[in-house]
Amino acid sequence: PSRKVNEIDNRGSSFYLALYWAQALAAQTRDPEMQARFAPVAEALAANETKIVEEILAAQGGPQDVGGYYLPDDAMVKQAMRPSPTFNAIIDGMA
C-alpha cells in the first residue's frame, strides 16, 4: 500500500486480496461447492475492478473523521474503510 494520494492504500489492498482469493477459490477443483460459491464473486470483482478502484481512490485526500483516535465510532470507521459501494455490495451479497 502507498501512503501517497491517488495510489492504492490499505483499502485497495483489501480489494485485491479479496479478488485474488475469490479467483483462486473459483479456480480450484478440490471443493466443487466452494468453487460454485466463489465463481460469481470472482467474476463480479474482476468485471468491476476499474470502478471499485476509482471509488476507493476517490475517497482519498481529505480528512477522515472516525469519531476519535482511541475509541473510534464503528459506523464512522466502516464508512471510512469501506468507501466503495460496488465492492461492498459484492462482499455483502455473499452473506
List keywords for this structure.
95 residues; mainly alpha; 5 helices; 63% helix
Offer a concise description of the structure.
The protein is mainly alpha-helical. 63% of the residues lie in helices and 0% in strands.
Description:
With 95 residues, this protein is mostly helical. The protein has one domain (10-92). 63% of the residues lie in helices and 0% in strands. The chain has helices spanning 10-27, 32-47, 49-58, 74-81, 85-92. α1 crosses α2. The longest helix has 18 residues, at 10-27.
**Unreliable sequence segments:** none
What is the helix content? 55-70%
- Characterize the main sheet: none
Structural class, judged by helices and strands? Answer: mainly alpha
Overall pLDDT confidence: 93
Count of structural domains: 1
| Helical segment count | 5
In percent, how much strand structure appears in the residues? under 5%
Order of helices and strands: HHHHH
Rg, rounded, reads 15 Å
The shape is: elongated
Described by its quaternary structure, the protein is single chain
Structure summary, number of beta strands? 0
Span between termini = 28 Å
